[in-house]
Please model this.
Amino acid sequence: MVGVPADGGGGAVNIPFVKMHGLENDYLFIDARPASSFDPFAAAPRACDRRHGIGADGIIMHGPPRDPANHAVMTVVNADGSDGGVCGNGLRCLGMLLTEDRGAGEHEVRVETPGGVVRLLVSRPVDDAPVMIEADMGSPRLELGSIPAVVPGRDSAATIIDRTLSDLEIDSSSLGLPADARLSLVSMGNPHLLIRLPEGGSRSMLDEGVRRVGPMLESHPWFPERINVHLMTIDAPGRIRLSTWERGSGPTRACGTGACAGAVAARSSGEAPEWQTVELPGGGLEIGWNGSPDDPVRQRGPAEEVRRGVLDPATGLEPDRDSGDDDDR
Model:
């Protein structure tokens, strides 16, 4: 797909996009080759606005890899125009997009990300069943210096997994959280703060709670690059419910790297099998990790295309389409 002149002549060129989602976590995918002058960081706040723009949780640029042994490089831009780092749902969608011209069967795709090269195994069905993708997300990073997090009284090599808020001198009542809530910090190439609540928390309680604590914790002084915030419960060994506040985007329907981080936290605290199901507002992901620090975390789930269009690089909006009419994940 090539650019389309915005004025019908030789002026500004409209940028083609593909809107896709993984469990309702949606992005505008843009091929960087015909969009070399397009600035996604400047365009994202307008383009991703669900009332006045196209509507999405962010923009993902993809283009030729630096290493010819790989298939693509990706850049994730949050809805507010900040750097998104790594995105698990976005990776699965990109794997589907990059194999759209291949037939049914399993196809390997390798994508360069800020967290390293991610290997995707894309299973394309012969019928109308969803495309399923398994992603090798690399090893989790637990040391505070790798999150990154600067926690008073702890050095950069320390870890925080399943610690009570009082252990960390955090006033749970100021966050509206129970005293027995437990906190973990995990990086999956981007930073995650996970707060585990007592068993029995409802989906609405998790969703409402993360909207309350997310803005307070995203920009906490401990986190120099801000942080993704999640509330989770362990309903049974291997079954997690999780709700997300993404840095730079706010509440989202799913977070693939957050699901990975939640499974790592549960496994590290000794309460989970190797493969776990993480239920998110948008659906479930299967997450596998054997507990070894060097073992990669594997993520398995669907991806779907929503539609295709073009956006005006000058406005970040879609020509000839009413703003705000596209919240169509």
Summary: The helical segments are 40-47, 88-98, 203-218, 256-268. Residues 144-295 form a domain with the Diaminopimelate Epimerase; Chain A, domain 1 fold (CATH 3.10.310.10). The chain has four helices and 18 strands. The two ends are 22 Å apart (CA to CA).
